[in-house]
Write a structure and sequence with these properties.
Layout: E1 4-8, H1 12-23, E2 27-32, E3 45-48, H2 53-63, E4 68-71, H3 78-91, E5 94-97, E6 110-114, H4 117-123, E7 129-133, E8 149-154, E9 167-171, H5 178-187, E10 192-196, H6 205-213, E11 216-220
Parallel strand pairs: 1-2, 1-4, 2-3, 4-5, 6-11, 7-8, 7-10, 8-9, 10-11
């Protein structure tokens, strides 16, 4: 039976899931936060922008007669995941939570595992050249480290000036090829990487590159829902 499905997306896995469900004959809408100007193409319908909290999401589900809500957002999208659970309970729709497994440390990895952004900032040594592999909305807490040079990769130019004393901006998408990522790390003379344990294959190349180069990684652990 065909269902009307809302996918809370923004991940590689959500794109793949939308394709699968559309091919199975379902009426699928994927919701994107809208942080990227040119997101990857998604099969089915696409909705861009926030809902306005639990109330807004609940209303959208009811107005569009959604049968199933699937949370396939980024593992660190804690707020929308919480709202999704509450909205599903309020509207009594079928709810699925699909979170990709976390990365596991390998014997040759040099990880320092930390619980949050603040601890990650404090863990960076003086004089480091740090690849800050975080979403643009998460980098501000590092700006007061005036003794560190940050390399920040973005898909789109920032809407306003970044408050860092010393930084380099790279406008590019992450490569799935660890050799390409390793070349970038070497070209930028990176000494440390700060990233979140996002899991999945889409961003794993930088972890493989760090392993191959013996670079330390300050890994922010995810919150278990």
């Amino acid at each position: 039976m065909s269902e009307r499905i809302l996918i809370l997306g923004g991940t590689k896995e959500a794109v793949e899931l939308a394709t699968q469900l559309v091919n199975n004959g379902h009426d699928v809408t994927t919701s994107l936060a809208g942080r990227t100007k040119e997101p990857k193409l998604v099969d089915g319908k696409v909705r861009v922008g926030g809902f306005g909290g639990v109330d807004g999401l609940s209303s959208w589900i009811e107005d569009n007669k959604i049968d199933r809500l699937i949370d396939a957002t980024h593992p660190f999208a804690e707020k929308i995941s919480k709202n999704a659970r509450l909205a599903a309970k309020r509207t009594n729709v079928i709810f699925e939570f699909r979170q990709r497994p976390a990365w596991q440390i390998q014997p040759s990895d040099k990880w320092t595992i930390v619980p949050d952004l603040i601890t990650a900032r404090q863990t960076i040594p003086n004089g480091a050249r740090v690849f800050l592999a975080l979403g643009s909305q998460y980098i501000t807490p590092f700006a007061d480290r005036r003794d560190v040079h940050f390399i920040i990769r973005m898909i789109d130019p920032p809407a306003k000036h970044l408050p860092f004393k010393s930084h380099t901006l790279l406008f590019q998408r992450p490569s799935p090829d660890w050799n390409v990522e390793a070349d970038m790390l070497k070209e930028q003379n990176i000494t440390h990487i700060v990233c979140r344990n996002s899991g999945g294959t889409g961003a794993y190349a930088k972890i493989e590159a760090a392993r191959s180069l013996g670079l330390p990684v300050i890994m922010i652990e995810r919150v278990v829902p």
